[in-house]
Amino acid sequence: MSLVKRSRRLALRTVKLVARAAAGLRAYPDGMAPPTTRADFLAGIDTAGSVLEIGPFDCPQFEGTNVSYFDVLDQNDLKQRAIAHGRSPDRCPPIDFVSYNGDLRIVDRKFHTIFSSHVIEHQPDLIAHLQAVRNILALGGQYLMIVPDKRFCFDHFIPETTIAEVIDAATQARTHSARSVLLHSLFTTHNSAISHWLGFHGKKPRSNREQSEIDAAMTEQKHSADGEYVDVHAWYFTPEGFLDVMRALATTQLIRLIPVRVHQTAVFDQEFFVVMQAV
C-alpha cells in the first residue's frame, strides 16, 4: 500500500474516531441513539432464540440451526444472481421460505428475532410489510433493521418519505408505483457515502429526459404491476424521519411494533440501525 493511501486511511479513521467520541457526548431525543457501526450493531443482537433473516442474498449475517431465511429467490436463483453481479455464489444459503413477490405471509411460524438489511426501503406497501413481520414475531420479540440514509446514498436528491405517503400506499395495489420506479430510474445519483458527506452529490437530476429512459422506466413499472420483482427503492429515510413515521404508525395502531431505538448515521457511512419491538 502506498504512503498516500495509508495517510488517507489514517486520516479517515481519525475523523471517524473523533466524530464517534463527539457523538457519544451529545444528548439525543427519546428514541434516538448515537451512531454505531454495523459490526457493533450485529454483535449486540440476541440470537439465542429463533431468528429469521430476510433477504440474505450472498452474505447472510447469521448462521446456525436456529436461523431461517426468507427471500424472493431460492438458493439456485440467488447463486445465478450473484454470478451475474460478479459476486461469489458460495455463501448463498438454502432459503427456507421463498416468495417471489416478497409476501411474508407464507412463513408458518413465529420467531424471537427478525432481521433485515436494506430490505424495508424496497417494500411497495410499508405498512403491510410491518404488519406481516409482527404476525410472525413473538410478543416482545424484536425486528432489527439496517436502513440506508437517503442523504448519503444514490437517493440523495429524492424527497424524504412522509407518513402521508406511507398511508396512501397502503390503499393502493401492492406493487411498486410508477412514481417509485421513475424516481429510481431517473432521479438517483452516485452512491459514494464519503462524497455525499463532503458535499459532492453529483449532478442534479435533469428536468428533461430521453424518451428511451422514460419508456424503460415505465416497462419496469409494468413488470412490477404484473407481479414480478422489481429492485427499486420505494421509501427514502433519514434516522429522524424514520422514527417519526414509525411512531405515527404505532400511535395510530396501524402497526403493533414500537421503535425502541434508532441510531444516527455515523460519519462517512450511509446506513443507520433500528430496533423495533412487538407489542
Automatic annotation (TrEMBL):
Name of the protein in question: Methyltransferase domain-containing protein
Organism, scientific name: Sandarakinorhabdus glacialis
